Amino acid sequence: MSSINGTTHGALFRSRASGHGMPGALFGRQDVFENDVDIFFHKHWIMAGVTADVREPGDVSAVDIGRASIIIVRDDDNFVRAYRNVCRHRGARLREQGKGSVGMLVCPYHQWTYGLDGGLKHAAHMGQHFDPSCRSLMPVPLRVIGGLIFVCLNDEAPVDIAALDETMTPRLAPFDLARTKIAYETDIIENGNWKLAIENNRECYHCSATHPELTVSFLAEDFGFCPDGLSEESERALAEYRARNAASLASWHKEGLLSEAVERLDDVATLFRTQRLVIAGNGESQTMNTKVASTRLLGDNTRRDLGDTHLWTHNSWSHVMSDHAVISYLIPLAPDRTLVRTKWLVHEDAIEGVDYALSDLIEVWQATNAQDARLVAINHQGTQDPGYRPGPFSPFTESYLERFSRWYATRLEAHGV
After folding, report:
1. What is the DSSP string of 18-52?
2. pLDDT at residue 2 in the model
3. What's the domain range around 347?
4. Residue 26 falls inside a structural domain
5. Which residues of 239-274 are buried (b: 16+ CB within 10 A; e: fewer)?
6. Is the dihedral of CA 239, 245, 246, 251 positive or negative?
7. Is 200 helix (H, G, I), strand (E, B) or coil?
8. What are the residue boundaries of the Rieske domain, all occurrences included (predicted)?
9. Residue 234 above 50 pLDDT?
10. What is the mean pLDDT of residues 54-63?
């Protein structure tokens, strides 16, 4: 358990006042960052990709996570697997971060060669007594949930990933994300701590003032609001919001589409929340005109108004609509640097320029990601100012920040910090 000036990571967090933000040192200290990576990114399930990253046998995706690195591969039997990106000879990295396609995994140092099943197939000059069966690649626990890839870098992975699987598999089934392709993807480096990036994503207090593209497709009441002293106009808008939600929920329920909110945010290892939200305007998709960006809908759907099935975990947020999905996840790089990776998925048969215009598909979240990067950066800067004192969360628009903070504290305690 590391400490600076005698204050441990856990003790620092426990100095936080309930209902308030975290102390600035939790965002800026190197020892806290290293603990965070070890606990929250090496010992918990994290999103690390989508099956569309490895669509065909031989496709590989290497992902760096702190000092660790993994290789996600689709093998010759069409199974998605994950291995440590470490040669079993002298430890060289097998692949640089990124994607590609291979017949075998060949170490660039001494050419030890592995099959896509992880088995060592060739190692020259090792002698007749060498047993290659003892030098297979080290597997990484992996779970594919509705086309989303989750991995855990701890051999004893939390078993409550089953709850996420049981909840999301039927919700994502109508969209058949296994039959999608990546239309576009971006990597953004946000100049802020990963927890600030997550906090920013967990509240929409800021949305109406900073996200003009995103708010086109959201009903304002979904951002959260203070019910005290509502005007007559606001009361009418709230009644209309509730009526529209009820009608949409009834329509989806009639077709067997799961929509109600499911939250596992307390006393769990694998945190997540999901809900199907009504889309504003034309009600079809998160686009500037709120109509579908792709006329080739996901799965075998013919109905366009399927809302926004969102999912968030402690390192990801996803929005799945009738025509496309936007999948984002983050990986911490330094106390003040966070990689945010976003992938826009469309049906595998959708054709750019025929079924969709790329600019229409990516416009909303490309703008939103850039705006969020700026917000996280100024937030991080402020938390490192000597004058920073954590302020109170809004109970109406920032309740999930408090719950994330409590979960974070619980997981620190579970790992003895």
Report:
1. TTBPPPTHHHH-HHHHHHHIIIIITSS-EEEEEGG
2. 46
3. 159-414
4. no
5. eebeeebeebbeebeeeebbbeebebeeebbbbbbb
6. positive
7. helix
8. 47-151
9. yes
10. 98
Angstrom CA distances, 355 to 88, 177, 326, 346, 388, stand at: 46, 17, 17, 10, 50
**Amino acid 228: pLDDT:** 74
Q: What is the mean pLDDT of residues 125-137?
A: 95
DSSP-derived letter for residue 54 is G
The fraction of the chain above a pLDDT of 70, given in percent, is: 98
pLDDT in tens, 364-408: 999 999 999 999 999 999 999 999 999 999 999 999 999 999 999
Q: Check: CB of residue 312 under 8 Å from CB of residue 329.
A: no
Tell me which amino acid residue 56 is.
Answer: E
Mean pLDDT, the chain, rounded, equals: 95
Residues 167 and 305 in one domain: yes
DSSP string, 217-249: SB-GGGG----TT--HHHHHHHHHHHHHHHHHH
How far, in Å, CA of 408 to CA of 404, rounded?
6
At 225 the pLDDT is: 66
CA distance 19 to 178: 40
| 288, 261: one domain | yes
DSSP labels, 185-199: EEEEEESS-HHHHHH
Confirm whether 41 is domain-assigned.
no
Phi-psi region of 125 (alpha: psi -120 to 50; beta: other; left: phi over 0): left
Q: Distance between CA 114 and CA 136 in Å, rounded?
A: 8
Q: Report how far apart, in Å, the C-alpha atoms of 336 and of each of 30, 232, 235, 332, 387 are.
A: 9, 45, 42, 9, 18
Q: Which helix (H) or strand (E) holds 149?
A: strand 148-151
Quick one: the chain helix, strand, coil %, rounded to 5? 30, 25, 40
Provide the token pair at 272: 């997540």
Residue 243 has pLDDT above 90, yes or no: no
Domain shared by 101 and 225, yes or no:
no
For residues 157 and 242, the model is more confident at 157
- State both tokens at 353: 């320029």
